[in-house]
Design a protein that fits this description.
The chain has 498 residues and is mainly β. 14% of the residues lie in helices and 36% in strands.
Length: 498
Amino acid sequence: MKEVISKITQAINFVRSRVSKKTLYFLWERISNKVKKLSFFKKGNFVFVFFILIFSLASLYFAFKNFIPAAAVGTFSDDFATVDSGDALVWSLTGGAKEVGLNTEIRLEGTGAYTFYSGSAAGAAGAYRDLVPTPGAINMSGKQLWFYLYLGTVVEGAVENLVSNVNVTLYDDAGGAQAGNWSQWNICTANVNCREVFSFGWNTIKIYLSQPDTTSATPVNLSAVTNFTLNWTSSVKMSARTGPPMGIDFVRVGKTISFNGGTASNPVTFADISNYSNNTNPGGNPRPLGAVSISGNAVDMRVNVSVGDADGTATYFSDTDKYIGMNMANSDDKLSFTLYKNSTTTFGAYENGFAISGNTIAYAKTASTTEKILTGLRSTPFIFPNSTSPLPDLYLYASKISGAADVYFGTSTAASINAGNVYDTEIDNASTTYIYSPALQLKNVDIHHSTTSATSTMKIFVQPTTPYENVRIFASPTNALDIATTTGGPDQITLWDI
């Protein structure tokens, strides 16, 4: 109701800002004159006016709700560094590639997009950007590489039906040329694969810069990359038609979106993260990156998310009824939520003694061609980097962790959790659930263990301050529960209801 009233107020102010005072005074005078001639102050008229007012305010709300942006919650940042913005003619072409130039109509960010096609000959072609002298060698180690690739149409047909062997090659030559050590990452090889990966228009490409498909004798030095090259092979010499055939826009590297702020009553949600990822500047040129996207209740999470900051800014993050797909590019592209000190993260809700509306964090177990998610890629869902107070709070209600690697509730007895509840929740992970926080309360929790792993399903390093209730461990007796007395835990732990 508070949000509705706020939007109605904004709508009224919107109308007032577009109607002159002279017009408003004229209308008021006409209304006043009419009122003087009527017996206005009758009981029936008051009821009539009340309903007119309600319907009018409701009409204003529904009329303007799509034009009034919701106030953003939280202060956001990221670690992305620009490789090239696509706004200048600083690219070079190889093989059968032919330049079209800068296009301001299809550009996604900045002022333009660099466009080209295989207009000189069929066969191998490429577009490359020397990073030396400007902007200089870039440290891409441990980062994701992101860029937009445009595939349009030519006289011979849709470009995605004509290309194969599309890949990215990075070089470390000091002069910025296509020389020195190099590493190559395939986007698609045969055309049948390219048709699955690409579609008409802009395609967002993400590559995690490890495990290259091909390298020189010595792989590229990722801490000092000096050349970015996009390669492809065309089955025909393309003939241009109206509209750009191919294009590239905004190449960047990074891996993490961070935020702080919010309140207990108005926390940051996945919608806020998605809005930052995909429209960082609503008043200007948007950024449709897709690092975190939402479709219905499904969240496609392709980067790390940091909740709070190292300074301990009070931060609140909460959401319900979300299926969070942890979309890793390869096994090194570990995706997690990093929970900094003085942050509170809540998945689901706890109302009147019941855990409801939980979230699911899912790492890919099976391949999905429609979502282009690989299989068998696991990571740790929560990371706790701080050991000083106030430590973070974590609440999981009616939630599920699926297909993860180790699950940590605290990283050590020092880098732990200040307060936390795990109620009516299922943990289905490949390795071990570690508990380092005595304040963590477990109630109606199912913990499933991988049938192929010989590690412990649940490992406890502390004496819980509150008795556990109905914790069920699904594993063989030899690897079900480990009281970590020899690895930093207490000599004795008392447990209830396991």
